[in-house]
Write a structure and sequence with these properties.
eleven-stranded mixed beta sheet, disordered N terminus, D-Maltodextrin-Binding Protein, domain 2, 341 residues, alpha/beta
Length: 341
């Protein structure tokens, strides 16, 4: 069981300047979809089962969905299984999928759960009956940065323009992003505060998937949107959306950093994989080895490059400590920013 305790973080803490402290915060795939690379990794992997299942606590098309399906393809590629079934169960920052997983698959040694910073934040905000003590960590796999976008026709040309509007009247600047309490929501609050506006007046429009965030921005329902680069990449490439800032310390993806535009905030998002509370330590270790091999596979490396994700492998006690610290700081941020579910 993942025990939530106060521990020292082991690095990788994403910093967002908010008064000086911040948080770090069913369709089968067949083997032919995977690359033939990583032969050395494949030879060392024990086949976990003829068929594995990955529960994705989000709708299709978002970051968790992309990560889960990329992991499934790579697990096929290294020979950890012959078939993957994906089960999407989105809503409320992953807490609906978390409860579903804990109830149905807690003792299932062949079913994995995707999760990450969004889920941690949602648990901190919503305080659900089923929380992350009901699952066990396998590994953190990726980190990426958040991108702020506006419609291509928007008069907002920069983060400075957006900050000016937020200072004038944040209630007239609705911002769309992922589920309530997740990293997008927290960063919207951080950005509002960093713009010297009141985060209590933030109008945040939460959605269960990246597709809905894009639609909200393009339709004019939201003035701006916040999500990972991969979730906006198609619309950015087509010219329908325009990126005005990224949450890294320095410019990436050809997008200017928010911090470099005079609003002193930055933040990184992470995603990982988990197993059930009733799964044995031996099986957990086998899963960790398989996932590690999968992250070395050609298909996974290609996905990292394509989506502009950074590899951020962390497993074992270090990952458990990381989550504990993340949960504590997320609760602090929910209180500090006065976020509401």
């Amino acid at each position: 069981m993942l025990k939530i305790q106060r521990r020292t973080a082991l690095g990788g803490l994403a910093i967002a300047a908010v008064g000086g402290t911040a948080p770090l915060w069913a369709q089968p795939s067949k083997p032919g979809a995977a690359s033939a690379g990583a032969a050395s990794a494949k030879s060392k992997v024990v086949k976990l089962a003829p068929k594995l299942r990955i529960v994705i606590p989000a709708n299709a098309g978002g970051g968790w969905d992309q990560t889960g399906r990329a992991l499934g393809t790579a697990l096929l590629g290294v020979g950890a299984t012959d078939e993957i079934e994906y089960e999407n169960k989105g809503g409320k920052g992953g807490t609906i999928g978390l409860a579903h997983y804990a109830e149905k698959y807690s003792n299932d040694p062949n079913t994995l759960l995707m999760g990450g910073m969004v889920m941690v934040g949602a648990v901190a905000l919503q305080k659900p009956v089923v929380d992350m003590t009901r699952i066990q960590p396998i590994a953190r796999m990726t980190s990426d940065y958040l991108v702020v976008v506006v419609p291509a026709s928007s008069p907002i040309r920069s983060i400075s323009d957006l900050a000016q509007r937020l200072r004038a009247n944040p209630k007239e600047v609705p911002i769309a992003g992922g589920s309530a309490g997740g990293v997008d929501h927290v960063f919207a609050g951080v950005l509002t505060r960093g713009s010297q506006s009141n985060p209590e007046e933030l109008v945040y429009l939460p959605f269960a998937g990246g597709t809905e965030v894009v639609q909200a921005v393009l339709s004019g329902k939201a003035v701006a949107g916040i999500s990972g680069f991969s979730e906006f990449s198609e619309q950015l490439a087509s010219g329908k959306l325009r990126a005005i800032g990224v949450s890294s310390k320095r410019s990436v993806f050809g997008i200017p950093a928010i911090r470099e535009q005079g609003v002193g905030v930055d933040m990184a998002n992470w995603r990982g994989v988990f197993t059930g509370q009733g799964v044995t330590a031996a099986r957990q270790a086998e899963m960790t080895d398989a996932v590690k091999a999968a992250t070395l596979h050609d298909s996974w490396q290609k996905t990292l490059k394509q989506n502009h994700w950074e590899s951020s492998w962390l497993a074992g006690p270090g990952f458990a400590s990381f989550i504990d610290f993340d949960m504590t700081t997320s609760r602090v941020m929910v209180h500090l920013l006065k976020l509401k579910a």
